[in-house]
Design a protein that fits this description.
single chain, mainly alpha, Four Helix Bundle (Hemerythrin (Met), subunit A), 10 helices, elongated
Length: 210
């Protein structure tokens, strides 16, 4: 058994255990962390078959962005765990049937197409799929790539616009209106009658002091 086989077995076992713990964990935060571990293990398996772009993309996009967002949402929301687990045992038979079908399809695929897989030649070993993919994206598929980027930008702006709501209690100051304000509009001089102080009578010198 080679070192690559040992690494594959280790990461595959970690992936299976972490995927099982995602489903069986009672705490949603722990389930999200186990899902992060599953993504990292899957990325390591991608790197083993020399799919560097897929492995790095899995870590950067799913682990670095999506799962961090999930963790923030799960930790900020007050999630009722009992409500989430309600109906779990009722759906278990159907889920077991679907899982059995998927496992059977994978086994049949490995048995039927496993013998047809040819070993990679020296050109595939010397080349990098990240370099080849980047060359294709920015040469043959440059226009679809740019169109997809524009669509994502429009979707981002639309998402910000849909979530933006004007609040009644928010205070907004328009600098243009402030510059056009005249003194007469803001300042009003009121004429107030001045107060008159009454003079207190002076004590008479003939009056004896108490």
């Amino acid at each position: 058994m080679s070192f690559q086989d040992i690494v594959f077995i280790v990461f595959a076992a970690i992936l299976l255990v972490s995927g099982f713990r995602v489903v069986t964990s009672k705490n949603p935060v722990h389930a999200a962390l186990f899902l992060v571990l599953a993504f990292v293990s899957a990325s390591a398996l991608w790197l083993l078959i020399e799919a560097e772009f897929l492995g790095i993309g899995l870590v950067l996009i799913y682990v670095g962005a999506v799962m961090v967002l999930f963790l923030f949402v799960v930790m900020m929301l007050n999630i009722d765990i009992e409500l989430l687990r309600k109906g779990f045992w009722k759906s278990l038979p159907l889920a077991a049937v679907v899982a059995a079908i998927m496992v059977s399809e994978l086994i049949l695929l490995i048995k039927v197409r496993g013998a047809d897989v040819k070993p990679a030649n020296d050109v595939m070993h010397s080349a990098s799929n990240s370099h080849a993919l980047g060359k294709l994206l920015y040469s043959d598929f440059i226009y679809p790539f740019e169109i997809a980027a524009v669509i994502l930008l429009v979707a981002l702006v639309a998402a910000v616009g849909l979530t933006f709501r004007k609040r009644k209690d928010s205070k907004y100051v328009d600098p243009g209106k402030q510059a056009k304000v005249m003194r007469a509009d803001r300042l009003k001089v009121l004429r107030v009658q001045s107060e008159k102080f009454l003079e207190q009578p002076q004590p008479n010198a003939d009056t004896p002091a108490e």
